[in-house]
């Protein structure tokens, strides 16, 4: 197990190095650099920037050095000082920009993951146990629809319904009267009454997918000989189900734990944009649109790092949960 | 079991594809999905004919005009009522009322905006439209510049529906080639390719898409941009397929029929393309079909965020971009119809993919 862990950690380091390089390539991909944005903005205002000033800007941001030097400067800043670079558009450090919004993204992702689990597992298990029952058909059909509806559609429709029939502004996180108020019970309740909409919207697609996976996994297990054995030795049905096949079918539970980490930051970009939630998602979109490439690159880097770590954690959790996987790890 | 044996005996002479079709037909939802998709693709292919007007024909005086109802009377034949609009002096909001005194005659096979059938043959015949081409005719309402939503929906279908197919085709080629090499050669090459695939899979999809499309130069024309988006979408799509193909190759390599072919002196290419590929092609096609709706959703989401295709190109995602804020949706809920189209198409495709997967699995 230790050997496996060490190998995984080494491999993770290699992957992260590769990701950081790709990220930097992406940062540098758009033709032109920050100075061309400055020039374009100045021209839009009808001003003219002298060449000497542009050269000065280039030197200031290190844009005149060769590619590899720029990459090494950037990555050593990230690794050694946690310095993700400056957002050109915001004129702030990327770390503080993202840090400001991370808490809400975190609340949103954790809450929606809990929502997904709470809904998907019982329904998935029920669907598998009562295969081809009306309930199973309803669950399957809703699951298909949940996967087919784009998140933003759902968000728009819910906002429209809220606006039209409840006269409530569903976007944002607070009602206008609480937006600037200090924290109190009323504000907290107001937050909760706004937050459930994005949680549901974000959760629906994941719920639909997880229902399908749980159902398929459990169906695979239900007809295996060990279930018959357990039944034959007289174990009560519910105990039998929970102890063996359900346990085996819960592995997607652990794979989704791995998604949680990157979700903390990506904050369900699309939904946040539509519902104008102050998570990190809209920040990423704004950065992409204005080609604020250091901000974009930092996002990709942070998200990829979290994905890689998350994947590893969920692999470890899986190995802990499922003896078959543990055995495979110990062999390899 | 007995029944199955009997069934197999009667179908001994049928090809694999006929067997698949039989199995597929039994999957009712998949069949319904197919029945829904075929006409949609047909309409999209001949969009110019089915759309009442061109995608950029605007009635600037009628922004957000509501949908008109098609009426029939003995006096006028087929017609719609015109609008009269009033502007609220305080809010400057424009409200439309149906003006029963204005009658717009509607006919079939009328002359209207020019287009090219399949991009080649010039024509100006439209299936349905106002007999006087300059009259407003909005069966699904109008957008913020007074353009007919129905026409834009039909014309946008071409991009939205084809981007999935083109993208999947690209990732299909990549996946087959790389997965095939990985699985057939095995060893060190296999190892390296698998690591690369793991690497690509470890980068989160949406931010990567966004970052890559941010890197697209704004000066690119719609067609170049379309292909660039397709490439971006398929850049990620091929990895799953490559793994699948590799797995198949690895297990097939040891099969008796491959050994027999090898002993028979068949060359490497002959074994791969003559014997191995046909034996898992159906399975691959089934799993590829599941990727098409994902790509359509990807394009829609990207364009919705304003990162995919840009106007004047029309796709369902571009149309939905106009419905991005609640204010627009509240004034003109019909702007959400492209979203409904996306849901219907993706749903149908998921059903078809499900049916294909079931039909392609010989071990069921």
TrEMBL record, chain A:
Q: Which Pfam family would be a valid example here?
A: BPD_transp_1
Entry's InterPro entries?
Answer: BPD_transp_1_N (IPR045621), MetI-like (IPR000515), MetI-like_sf (IPR035906)
As for membrane topology, the entry says: Multi-pass membrane protein
Does Nucleotide-binding appear among the keywords? no
* UniProt entry keywords in alphabetical sequence: Cell membrane, Membrane, Transmembrane, Transmembrane helix, Transport
The transmembrane residues are 9-27, 102-129, 141-163, 195-214, 253-275, 295-321
Q: Which GO terms describe its cellular component?
A: plasma membrane
Does this UniProt record's set of keywords contain DNA damage? no
Gene3D superfamilies membership? MetI-like
What protein does this entry describe? ABC transporter permease
Organism in which the protein naturally occurs: Kribbella capetownensis
Origin organism lineage: Bacteria, Bacillati, Actinomycetota, Actinomycetes, Propionibacteriales
TrEMBL record, chain B:
Gene3D superfamilies linked to this entry: MetI-like
Domain ABC transmembrane type-1 spans what residues?
A: 157-353
Q: List localization entries.
A: Cell membrane; Membrane
Please cite one Gene Ontology biological process associated with this protein: transmembrane transport
Cite the entry's keywords alphabetically.
Membrane, Transmembrane, Transmembrane helix, Transport
A GO CC term?
A: plasma membrane
* Matches recorded under SUPFAM superfamilies: MetI-like
State if Ribonucleoprotein is listed as a keyword.
no
Q: What is its main location?
A: membrane
Record membrane topology: Multi-pass membrane protein
The residue ranges crossing the membrane are 29-51, 159-187, 199-220, 226-245, 332-352
UniProt KW Transferase keyword: no
Q: What is one Pfam family matched by this protein? A: BPD_transp_1
Family assignment? Belongs to the binding-protein-dependent transport system permease family.
Question: What name does UniProt use for this protein?
Answer: ABC transporter permease
State the species of origin.
Kribbella capetownensis
């Amino acid at each position: 197990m230790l050997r496996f862990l060490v190998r995984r950690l080494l491999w993770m380091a290699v992957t992260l190095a590769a990701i950081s390089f790709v990220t930097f390539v992406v940062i540098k991909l758009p033709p032109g650099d920050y100075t061309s944005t400055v020039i374009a903005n100045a021209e839009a205002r009808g001003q003219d920037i002298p060449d000497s000033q542009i050269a000065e800007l280039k030197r200031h941001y290190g844009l005149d050095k060769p590619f590899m030097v720029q990459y090494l400067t950037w990555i050593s800043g990230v690794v050694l000082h946690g310095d993700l670079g400056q957002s050109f558009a915001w004129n702030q450090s990327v770390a503080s920009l993202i840090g400001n919004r991370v808490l809400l993204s975190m609340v949103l992702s954790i809450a929606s993951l809990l929502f997904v689990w709470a809904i998907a597992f019982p329904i998935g298990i029920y669907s598998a146990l009562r295969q081809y029952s009306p309930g199973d058909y309803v669950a399957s059909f809703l699951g298909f629809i949940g996967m087919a509806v784009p998140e933003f559609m759902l968000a728009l429709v819910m906002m429209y319904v809220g606006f039209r029939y409840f006269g409530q502004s569903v976007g944002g996180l607070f009602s206008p009267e609480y937006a600037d108020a200090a924290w109190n019970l009323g504000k907290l309740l107001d937050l909760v009454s706004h937050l459930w909409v994005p949680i549901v919207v974000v959760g629906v697609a994941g719920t639909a997918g997880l229902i399908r996976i749980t159902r398929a996994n459990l169906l695979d297990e239900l007809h295996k000989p060990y279930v018959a054995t357990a039944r034959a030795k007289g174990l009560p049905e519910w105990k039998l189900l929970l102890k063996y096949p359900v346990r085996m079918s819960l592995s997607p539970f652990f794979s989704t734990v791995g998604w949680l980490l990157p979700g903390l930051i990506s904050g369900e970009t699309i939904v946040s944009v539509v519902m104008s939630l102050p998570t990190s998602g809209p920040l990423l979109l704004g950065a992409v649109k204005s080609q604020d490439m250091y901000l974009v690159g930092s996002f990709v880097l942070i998200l990829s790092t979290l994905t890689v770590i998350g994947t590893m954690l969920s692999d470890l959790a899986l190995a802990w949960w499922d003896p078959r996987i543990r055995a495979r790890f110990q062999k390899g | 079991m007995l029944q199955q044996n009997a069934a197999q005996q009667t179908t001994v002479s049928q090809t694999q594809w006929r067997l698949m079709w039989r199995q597929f037909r039994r999957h009712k939802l998949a069949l319904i999905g197919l029945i829904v998709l075929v006409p949609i693709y047909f309409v999209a292919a001949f969009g110019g004919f089915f759309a009442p007007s061109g995608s950029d024909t605007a009635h600037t005086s009628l922004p957000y005009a509501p949908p008109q109802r098609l009426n029939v009377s003995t006096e006028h034949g087929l017609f719609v009522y015109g609008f009269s609009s009033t502007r609220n002096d305080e809010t400057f909001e424009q409200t439309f009322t149906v003006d029963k005194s204005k009658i717009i005659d509607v006919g079939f096979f009328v002359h209207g905006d020019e287009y090219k059938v399949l991009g080649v043959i010039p024509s100006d015949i439209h299936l349905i439209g106002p007999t006087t081409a300059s009259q407003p005719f909005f069966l699904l309402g109008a957008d913020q510049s007074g353009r007919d939503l129905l026409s834009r929906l039909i014309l946008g279908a071409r991009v939205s529906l084809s981007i999935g197919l083109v993208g999947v085709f690209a990732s299909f080629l990549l996946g087959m080639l790389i997965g095939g090499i990985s699985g057939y050669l095995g060893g060190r090459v296999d190892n390296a390719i698998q690591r690369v695939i793991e690497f690509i899979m470890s980068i989160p999809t949406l931010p990567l898409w966004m970052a890559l499309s941010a890197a697209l130069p704004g000066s690119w024309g719609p067609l170049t941009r379309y292909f660039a988006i397709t490439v971006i979408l398929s850049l990620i799509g091929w990895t799953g397929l490559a793994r699948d193909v590799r797995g198949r190759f690895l297990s097939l390599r040891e099969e008796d029929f491959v050994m027999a072919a090898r002993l028979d002196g068949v060359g490497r290419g002959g074994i791969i393309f003559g014997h191995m590929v046909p034996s898992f092609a159906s399975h691959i096609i089934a799993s590829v079909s599941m990727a098409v709706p994902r790509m359509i959703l990807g394009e829609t989401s990207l364009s919705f965020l304003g990162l995919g295709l840009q106007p004047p190109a029309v796709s369902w995602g571009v149309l939905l971009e106009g419905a991005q804020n609640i204010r627009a949706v509240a004034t003109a809920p019909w702007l959400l119809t492209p979203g409904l189209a996306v849901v219907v198409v993706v749903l149908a495709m998921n059903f078809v993919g499900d049916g294909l997967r079931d039909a392609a699995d010989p071990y069921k």
